[in-house]
Write a structure and sequence with these properties.
Structural class: mainly beta
Number of helices: 2
Shape: globular
């Protein structure tokens, strides 16, 4: 059977045997792997909106068909050019960790159940390796799997033959990312920021040294090696020299560290939060294939209790669209210029404010009329807006800028600024129902890596900030926190913590938790083990519920009545 016929047969069989339905990124998807653990039983948690496909791993088969694994999910999807997708396989027992195709277009995948499987053109599934741990693998020219039992410290690079024989190429390595390089060598990035090349005999050579390990690697079909850290850089393996792909690195500012290539050399960049993009390095174009509708900084609830989210295409001269969440699905309300939404706020029942940023233009705040769907510019603002909020007492619009100040538009229409503590890093805001402004303010980190000083404040008389809680004393490993003021006067923080102070158990080494300011000035734990990377929080003014948005969707926390 020819390759083309084999590929077609494999796709047809997989679709017939394993297909679980089709959808798009705005629909409902798989169940979340982690729902969270409530410590305070006076609270309840439910899902308000669930994302459908958060691409955690992307690969292409030999016919340039696109496949993706759902984040922390059990399903492998095929993604179409128009962004629609369908499930081709769902693992019954454990999440899928990695997927790839060999030269015969057999599909290989690993699971969290420590197994590696192969599915052939007829849909026959074979367990090839029965042990391991969440393997991340790449397939070389000899159809061997070059695998790591998930990335981290003290890891082995394994070579797994098509018949399941496992050997170790290099032991006790610190591995942030790895790929198959030229001549079936292995290229890896370690936690020192070094790019290493390992040949077939296991000899290791340092190719390049970087200031940061926060990057990914990729190799095109022509053998060109790339380093990805939001920029795209070409790595010369002989000299170790890194050269920016200038047209991309200067114009695009997307935090993309993962990539796959099709047979024409087009690069597919992806993260769970921003979706899937195709970069044509020859034509110098970027297009969005899939919007994952995941984590966003732009969430608001209006006076009627209607939930709104905004997602952008993250492209220069792009657009952001406001959606209403209705019965768990997204309905588009309006689109405004600017490819990156930085904040969303509601005023009454009919008005939303949305702030957008654009790497190729200015940043603006727009007003959107929910009845007509029309919008207009309210204010040109600085880039890197952190928060956008409306005072519920007088309707004044407030916002904060990273590294800068807090601003608002007063009754006369003038823009007024309020200083914060010296050297702010991020400034996250929320109003209480009585018009009290709360802020979690971070200062610059004096030592890297690690969190810097940050505290919960309220804005007092004469525009002076009053510290309510030093959040580092509650959990020294806290990394990120957003305030949410409840209707009953409670002040919550949605925070990313390391969990070292939490017992009896946790599923991840870093995750999101809900904290509440108590009368003693400390932060009391309400619940933890929620999906990591919360980017927005808000109080529902009609119920007092607290909502927070992750890459997995939106949780609704029902507060005690």
């Amino acid at each position: 059977m020819s390759r083309q016929r084999l590929c077609a047969a494999a796709a047809a069989v997989l679709a017939a045997v394993f297909c679980a339905g089709a959808g798009n990124a705005a629909g409902s998807g798989q169940n979340w792997a982690v729902f969270g653990r409530l410590v305070n039983r006076d609270y309840q948690m439910e899902v308000a909106y669930q994302t459908a496909l958060i691409p955690d791993f992307v690969c292409l088969d030999n016919n340039d068909r696109i496949f993706a694994i759902n984040n922390s999910g059990r399903t492998i999807f095929q993604v179409q050019e128009n962004g629609e997708f369908s499930a081709v396989y769902t693992s019954p027992d454990a999440p899928v960790s990695c997927v790839g195709f060999d030269s015969g277009n057999n599909m290989w995948f690993s699971t969290g159940g420590n197994q590696i499987f192969r599915i052939d053109a007829e849909g026959n599934q074979t367990l090839v390796v029965a042990n391991g741990a969440n393997r991340i693998f790449r397939i070389d020219s000899r159809d061997r799997l070059i695998a790591v039992d998930y990335y981290g410290t003290h890891k082995d690079i394994q070579v797994i033959t098509p018949d399941g024989n496992v050997s170790v190429l290099a032991a006790d390595m610190d591995i942030k990312y790895h790929i198959v390089g030229p001549a079936d060598s292995v290229l890896l990035l370690n936690y020192l920021g070094q790019v290493l090349q390992i040949d077939a005999s296991g000899v290791q050579t340092i190719i390049a040294e970087r200031d940061s390990f926060d990057a990914g690697l990729a190799m095109g079909p022509d053998g060109t090696v790339y380093v990805l850290d939001g920029r795209i850089q070409i790595l010369d393996l002989g000299s170790g020299r890194l050269q920016d792909v200038q047209w991309y690195s200067k114009k695009y500012q997307m935090a993309m560290f993962n990539a796959a290539f099709d047979s024409m050399g087009r690069m597919y960049l992806y993260t769970g939060n921003t979706g899937l993009y195709r970069v044509d390095l020859q034509l110098k174009t970027v297009e969005q294939i899939l919007n994952s509708f995941g984590s966003t900084m732009a969430m608001a609830v209006n006076a009627d209790g209607k939930l709104f989210l905004a997602y952008g295409d993250n492209l220069p001269e792009g657009k952001s669209t406001v959606y209403q969440v209705d019965q768990g699905a997204l309905t588009a309300v309006a689109s405004v210029p600017g490819g990156m939404p930085r904040g969303l706020a509601a005023s009454g029942t009919d008005t939303l404010y949305i702030a957008t940023d654009d790497s190729a233009a200015d940043a603006y705040i727009y007003s959107v009329n929910l009845i007509s769907g029309k919008y207009w510019k309210v204010k040109k603002v600085k880039h890197n807006l952190d928060s956008l909020v409306v005072n519920p007492v007088n309707g004044q619009l407030w916002w904060s800028i990273r590294y800068d100040k807090v601003y608002h538009i007063n009754a006369k229409g003038d823009t007024v600024y309020t200083s914060v503590i010296k050297n702010p890093d991020d400034i996250f805001l929320d109003f209480g129902p009585d018009g009290t402004l709360y802020a979690i303010i971070w200062k610059f980190r004096e030592v890297q890596p690690g969190p810097g000083p940050h505290s919960l404040y309220k804005l007092g008389e004469k525009s002076k900030w009053v510290e309510l809680a030093d959040m580092l004393t509650n959990d020294p490993g806290i990394w990120w926190a957003l305030p949410a003021a409840g209707l009953d006067g409670s002040v919550y923080a949605i925070a990313s913590i390391d969990g070292s102070t939490i017992s009896p158990s946790r599923s991840e080494s870093s995750f999101d938790a809900v904290l509440r300011l108590n009368e003693a000035g400390g932060m009391e734990l309400i619940g933890y083990d929620f999906p990591y990377d919360c980017m927005a929080a808000a109080c529902d003014p009609s119920t007092g519920d607290i909502l927070f948005c992750h890459s997995s969707g939106v949780y609704r926390m029902k507060t005690p009545k």
